[in-house]
Amino acid sequence: MPHLRGKITCKSSKIKARQELERRILHGMSCEWEAALLNLDPAERQFVRRPLFAIKDLKTQWGNWSQANREISLSRYLVLNYSWDSIRDVLLHEMAHQIAQQMPAALAETSHGSTFKRACAILGIDPVASRNYKPLQDRMLRNTSNQRDKIMIRIKKLMALAESQNRHEAEAAMLKAHELIAKYNVDHMEDQQDKEIISVFMGQPALRHPKEAYFLANLLQDFYFVRGIWVSAYVFAKAKMGRVLEISGTIPNVEIASYIHDVIRQYVDSQWPDYNHARKLRHYRKSDFAVGIIEGFRSKLESHVKRNTAAEAEFAMICRTDPGLEQYCKYRYPLTRKINKAVSHRNATVLNDGKKIGKRLIIAKGIAEKKKGKIRLIGHK
Question: What's phi and psi for 58, nearest 5 deg?
C-alpha cells in the first residue's frame, strides 16, 4: 500500500504541475491579447470585447475563435509542445478572426474577407486561411531552401569544415562561409518568388535585457541579412509582459542568425567562469566581458572584409535594401520607435580582454547540428 500511495502522490503532483503550467499559459494568452489590442485605433477598439481563453484537445485545429461563446481556444498539443512565439502567432491569428467578426463592417463578409485581412495587417500576421495555417516552428523546420542551390549547400559545408582541429583552416572556412552568405543574399536580392520570410524570437522574453543583447542584435543585422525588432512578449517567470528580440528574414538567413546568436551566448557563458575566477570580479562585469567578445568577433569579420576585395564588394551590397524584407517589415511592424539605451560605465580592462577572446572565436560546425543540441566551439588557446 505505501508503494501505491507513492504512485498516487507522484501522479497527483504531475497533474498539479500541468494545471499550474496551463494556468500560466492562459494568463500569458490574456496578456498577449491585451497588448495586441492596443494596435487598434481607439474608435475600433470599443467594438472588440474581451474574450474567454481556453486550452482544449483540438484534433484538427491549432486554435479556434468561437463567436457564440466569445472564446479563443488553443490546442493543448500546441501550447505544451511549441515555443511561445509559435503559440503567440496562432493566438493572434484567432484574435484577427475575433476582430473581423466583431467589427460592424464585417457583418456581410466571409470569415476571411477584407476586414479579416485588415485585422491581420494591424496585428502583423499572415492572413492565410486557418486550414492552411502552420505554426511558426513547423514553417522553420520545413526546408524551403532549394537543395539544388550550390551556394547554400557550400555555406553549410564550410560551417562544418570550421570544426577542423587546424585552427588556420577552421578560421579560413568560417570566413569564407561569411563571404558566401553575403554573395548568396546579393544574388537573390531581387528574386522575390517563393521567398518565405518569417519572424522568430531570439532568446527568452524578459523584463530587462543586458547591454550585450543589443550589441548581439546589431551584429546579426549587420552580417546575416536579418532585421531585429524588440517586441512585447509574455515573461513566464514574472507573469507579466516584457520584451524579446524578434528577428525577421528568409528561413535560411534566420537559421544562420539563430545559430550564431546561440553560439556566441554559449561562448560567453563558457569563457566567463575561468576569466572571472582569476580576477574575482562582480557578476555585472560579465556584460562588459560579453560586449567585448561580440565586438572582438565583429572586428574579425570587418577586418576580413577589408582585406578581401571580393568580400568587400559583396558586403558593400548589404547596404542595399532587400525589397521583400523591407515590405514584410513595413507590414509586420507598421509602428516602430527607436529605443535610446544609456551607455553605462564600463570596465575598460574587462572590455578589452573580452575583445581579445572574441577575435579568437571560430563558429564551428553548423546550422544542421543545432537541432541535435550540439553546438561545437573552437576555443581560444
Answer: -75, 135
Query: How does pLDDT run along the chain (381 residues), one tens digit per residue?
Result: 555 555 566 677 888 888 899 999 999 999 999 999 999 999 889 999 999 999 999 988 999 999 999 999 999 999 999 999 999 999 999 999 999 999 886 666 666 788 888 899 999 988 876 666 778 888 777 654 454 456 666 776 666 655 556 677 777 777 777 777 777 776 666 665 557 889 999 999 999 999 999 999 999 998 888 999 999 999 999 999 999 999 999 888 888 888 889 889 988 998 999 888 878 777 778 999 999 999 999 998 888 777 765 555 555 555 556 788 888 999 998 877 666 665 667 889 999 999 998 888 876 554 444 444 444 433 333
Nearest to 219 by CA among 332, 299, 327: 299
* CB neighbours of residue 90 within 10 Å: 25
Residue in 258, 247, 265 with CA at minimum distance from that of residue 377: 265
* Fold annotation for 2-141: Zincin-like (3.30.2010)
Q: Say how far residue 288 (Cα) sits from the centre of its chain.
A: 24
CB-based contacts of 341, cutoff 8 Å, min separation 6? 211, 214
Q: What's the CA gap between 14 and 254, in Å, rounded? A: 36
Strand partners, 229: 246
- Rounded to whole angstroms, the Cα distance separating 291 from 351 reads 7
The radius of gyration computed from the CA coordinates of the chain, to the nearest angstrom, equals 23
Strand ranges in the chain using DSSP code E only, listed in sequence order:
52-56, 63-66, 71-75, 197-206, 227-235, 240-250, 362-364, 376-378
What are the domain boundaries of the chain?
2-141, 150-378
The pTM (predicted TM-score) of the whole model is 0.82
Q: Which helix (H) or strand (E) holds 358?
A: helix 348-358
CA distance 95 to 127: 12
- Strand 52-56 relative to strand 63-66: parallel, antiparallel, unpaired? unpaired
Cα–Cα dist 159/175, whole Å: 9
Q: In what order do the strands lie in the sheet with 197-206?
A: 197-206, 240-250, 227-235
Q: Please give the Cα distance from 239 to 234 (Å, whole number).
A: 7
